[in-house]
């Protein structure tokens, strides 16, 4: 995809100003790493201080209806039927062969 066709998150300028090496990530301009030390320095910073992850390129789905729980129980690796209203759960989405397609919260 050409640079001009990429989409930009609201944090694009934030990433660039802090030396983010921007790459095409599924049509979005996203930071691969930052110039100030690379992956090891980023890991150490996250473990000793704090880090953010720009999720504004990610989609949201709303699964509704009488069979929503049955559907989710089939494609996710978590027991979503045990979740309480307003509770967040991390899970994997699987295809018909049981292979991981993506992760979701």
Summarize the structure.
The protein is of the alpha+beta class.
Question: How would you describe the overall organization of this protein?
Answer:
The protein has three helices and five strands. The chain has 105 residues and is α+β, with helices and mostly antiparallel strands.
Distance between the ends: 28 Å
- Count helical runs: 3
Return the structural class.
Answer: alpha+beta
Using the CA coordinates, give the radius of gyration.
18 Å
Percent strand equals: 15-25%
Helices and strands, in N-to-C order? EHEEHHEE
Count the strands? 5
Q: Could you estimate the helical fraction of the residues in percent?
A: 10-25%
Q: Please give the order of strands in the largest beta sheet.
A: 1-3-2
Instruction: List low-pLDDT spans.
Output: none
| Cα shape | elongated
User: Average pLDDT, to the nearest integer?
Assistant: 89
Reported for the largest beta sheet, the result is: 3 strands, mixed
Helix/strand layout:
Layout: E1 7-8, H1 12-17, E2 20-25, E3 28-34, H2 38-48, H3 68-75, E4 91-94, E5 100-104
Parallel strand pairs: 1-3
Antiparallel strand pairs: 2-3, 4-5
Task: Give short descriptive properties of this protein.
105 residues; three-stranded mixed beta sheet; two-stranded antiparallel sheet
